[in-house]
Predict the 3D structure of the following.
Amino acid sequence: MLDGKVPEGPLSEKWIRHKFEMKLVSPANKPTFNLIVVGTGLAGASAAASLSELGYRVKVFCLGDSPRRAHSIGAQGGINSAKNYPNDGDSVLRLFYDTVKGGDFRAREANVHRLAEVSGNIIDQCVAQGVPFTREYGGHLDNRSFGGAQVSRTFYANAQTGQQLLLGAYGALMKEIKVGNVQMHTRREMLDLIVADQRAVGIVCRNLVTGALETHLADAVILATGGYGNAYYLSTNSVLSNATAAWRAHKRGAFFANPCFTQIHPTCIPIHGDSQSKLTLMSESLRNDGRIWVPRKKGDTRLPHEIPESERNYYLEERYPSFGNLVPRDVASRAAKRVCDEGFGVNGGDAVYLDLLGPIARDGIAALEDKYDNLFEMYQRITDEDPRQTPMRIYPAVHYTMGGLWVDYNLMSNLPGLYVIGEANFSDHGANRLGASALMQGLADGYFILPYTIGDFLARQGRAKVSDDHPAVTDAQRETRERLDKLMSLRGKKTVSELHRELGQVLWDHCGMSRDAKGLQTALEKIPAIREDFWKNANVVGRPDTFNQVLERAGRVADFIELAELMCIDASNRNESCGSHFRVEYQTPDNEAQRDDEQYAYVAAWEYKGVGVQPALHKEPLAFERVGLAQRSYK
Amino acid sequence: MAGPTISVTLKVWRQDGPEAKGYFETHEAKDISTSMSVLEMLDVVNLRLQKEGKEPIAFESNCREGICGSCGAAVNGQPHGPKRATTLCQLYMRHFNEGDLLVIEPFRASAFPVIKDLVVDRSAFDRIIQAGGYVTVKTGQASDANAILVPKDVSDRAFRSAACIGCGACAASCPNASASLFAAAKVAQLALLPQGSVERTSRAREMVKQMDAEGFGSCSKHYECQEACPKEIKVENIAVMNREYLRSLLLDRD
Ligand SMILES: Cc1cc2nc3c(=O)[nH]c(=O)nc-3n(C[C@H](O)[C@H](O)[C@H](O)COP(=O)(O)OP(=O)(O)OC[C@H]3O[C@@H](n4cnc5c(N)ncnc54)[C@H](O)[C@@H]3O)c2cc1C
Ligand code: FES
């Protein structure tokens, strides 16, 4: 039984008490500790800056030419916080409740409560940094609503919230680089974790410009390397988003939790060509005003304006009268898939309408453009259709991964000294993340949680005394070198991206919006075959000692293939439906997810046992003290 | 695949490394769907090159949504290509015609050395920000968010400056390779907001100093940068920076 190390005491006092009970590192001692932060998205940048401010020596790594290029920069819609500025009934308790319920009761209550508690500090911090959130005419901060909530608690900076929050955290990081406490290493890819004497003590990374392998040792390693949605090939993630750092840590012993919990976002621009490199999200915030519908007639090929009101099916409003278009993502995505599978999609295909023409007529285009900023233009740019004149066409797409490396309440993995924050961990979103909660979680972890919890570890364990010639160090270096050599030796006929595409199709078909035992079995036969094909027939051109994007990509795809297998193993193990994990065998009479709390109210944390070998399952039981386990209802 | 296609000829800059000599290489991009972006078109060309056992054209991208600032190259002499207010990743092939010639080369500026093909080193931009492009506030020091009131029009203006994606098109388009628009966008954002006022005296001065140290030229009002900027950052920001700079010289007694 895996212990989440949740502190004792009533839910609302756990974090307060824990903060008091944790040991502190004295200010004079902090500079003697070296920390490694991998990743400079919201989680990594905020953590690195905050740790440096405390006095620790921090080395930071990222893939891009600048820390500001991280995937977080693309987040559009907003960030939640229980400020209750609109006076509409929000509170820490309500944000906590919505998140636990939204996650379909598969998150750890204590973590979620803490997240809600610190959510207010995040907005304060970001405003102090000069983040230009959208404001009301009186000069106060504006709010809007996101799915799964009946209050307006989402703060936003037009449709560029992620950009503005990341630039805030990036600014804080730049400030610490100037002070001299942070050493920034851009264009580096972590390729292995060094675990010596049961403690994570460093990383091996590749300099992406020179190809040189570098070793960095520290007293703790913090992974903030983002999610693995790109395992599906097509997703809304940035093209560099990958699982390599997390997967390498997994292979060194870190448990991977709930890998099958992947979020399919309901409002994305449908796939339009077979050379498409990624999918584009249309922010969920559009569901504040936008109405989602399909024609009532199957295969209706009329243009949308030719279809009269009475022949339109506003299926979310009909089915879920109390939440309407603002049901959570998993519910909205499945509903879209269902109507399209039944043949009601736009022109009988895979698309539904997201219609803003009503609100545009009512409030004027200027008001809507003020709210949604560049979204109309972005849609038009990509599709060549003007959403001011005709409804947007949308369809669900892979977007976010709730699964990730297992961490305890302190955000430490089962490997002492390895911390995991942001989307890379499995923590707070259970089986389905609510909109605008990823930014909140990443910044909560980085600004307000990790800087406290890591001190306790360092105070108790002291410095890691590992030298360059420790076998764990030399082994990791040698194995990384051998793996790169093996990749470079691949001279087959298939490009890495063809293999990636094949993998993505298998995952989408069998481990996507709906899953069943038979399909998962098929996937578990196909994925090992793709893995073999990769190591036989992939083609890796170029040289290892230069900037080589083919080699980079090959390493990431090889890891996605192994992770994909684990995702399917996890999905077939979980014989229930919950949140995003919809097993067709387990549904209520009206086609909603049917949980099995008796059997599956646990976190599935998998231990690596070898390539193609059945991993070992460790269960962390989930207890719900505050929120009564109930069938989710948004009706 | 549905939809119209076109064929175009590419003349692409190839350069093996920072020290290597660069040259143009010609490639035919055939039957390209007009719904592809320029980067997706390059993906297609790269797939073919790999199939032929050749090294693909190196170029950077991440978000492919015009927000991360990773992508960028000059197309027919214009950074990010011919369409206004558009990054290369959001420039679609429907804006080109059958038979067009696309000359694609890296962003040119002495402070942006080429790493490989279309990839350049823009770390100078990070160092300009390090010189003072932030508010010095530590985690935990903030007061309640609504304690700082900012009029909506001011906040909206600050947002428009803050929208800079740091891609480098401004410097690449400038005859003097000046980074003024980049630095000015940050200076102006923070000059407009009350949060930025405490460090006003030093910010512009330090950032301008760093800009010079990196080897960027100075602004002589060609305003090519405004034309090239994918986020439509306005040259008025440079006027704000100049004002802030003068102010810092006047007020600074160190
Ligand atoms: C289009 C889109 C819109 C979104 N909108 C919202 C929204 O409105 N609200 C919301 O709450 N959430 C939103 N999300 C989700 C949210 O943006 C992400 O979950 C979050 O930003 C992840 O942040 P992170 O810091 O964990 O990781 P990331 O931002 O993904 O950063 C990962 C970092 O790790 C580095 N890295 C990765 N691997 C390695 C390696 N091996 N070696 C070295 N460095 C490495 C990368 O370079 C990068 O710096 C959106 C997501 C998408 C795709
Ligand atoms: S790839 Fe991000 S701006 Fe073009």
